[in-house]
Design brief:
about 170 residues; mainly alpha; 6 helices
Length: about 170
């Protein structure tokens, strides 16, 4: 009889804990998105020419130099690698911060993180970036995102491209 009472109490506590964790899920996803967005945003604006789109703080020739001598990307010329890398960082950071097309850019930034890790510099921070990006990839952008707003406001739209599968009326 005591065992049943303890088991019932434990089940109640676990149910409350699960409920609390489910309520925290959107906050955790938002924090992960913003954390990774800041990392890639800071990197991108340092590569963009000073004043570019009012945010650039770098020198494009220095960026190309870095991609040519400091961290060359296999199979790509320095100017192309610099352009693609900077564009993915810049657009990916904006996408993650807003939560718009976050899964698409999570894949792109995961790929970029892998390239950085395996061709340029191995660092434990890259594991954290990858974990946060995998969270976005597997869970979506979360409740606090433009993806979620579009899902709610546009019920007739095909929102699968932004990470939500529409349930058909038959299911």
């Amino acid at each position: 009889m005591n065992c049943e009472k303890y088991c019932q109490s434990a089940a109640t506590i676990l149910a409350k804990a699960k409920s609390l964790l489910e309520k925290l899920n959107p906050v955790v996803i938002l924090a992960a998105r913003l954390w990774v967005a800041k990392i890639f945003w800071d990197s991108a604006v340092l590569k963009l020419p000073s004043g570019f789109l009012w945010v650039g703080q770098g020198n494009w020739q220095s960026t190309i130099y870095l991609f040519e001598y400091e961290h060359p990307v296999p199979l790509l010329s320095a100017p192309i690698a610099a352009f693609l890398g900077t564009a993915v960082e810049f657009l990916g950071a904006i996408s993650l911060a807003l939560g718009l097309g976050a899964r698409f850019f999570a894949v792109a930034l995961l790929f970029m993180t892998g390239v950085i890790e395996f061709t340029y510099q191995s660092h434990s921070d890259h594991i954290v970036w990858a974990l946060f990006l995998m969270l976005v990839l597997t869970q979506g952008a979360g409740r606090f995102s433009l993806d979620h707003i579009l899902k709610i406001r546009c019920p007739g739209c095909d929102t699968q491209i932004i990470g939500y599968k529409r349930k058909s009326a038959k299911s």
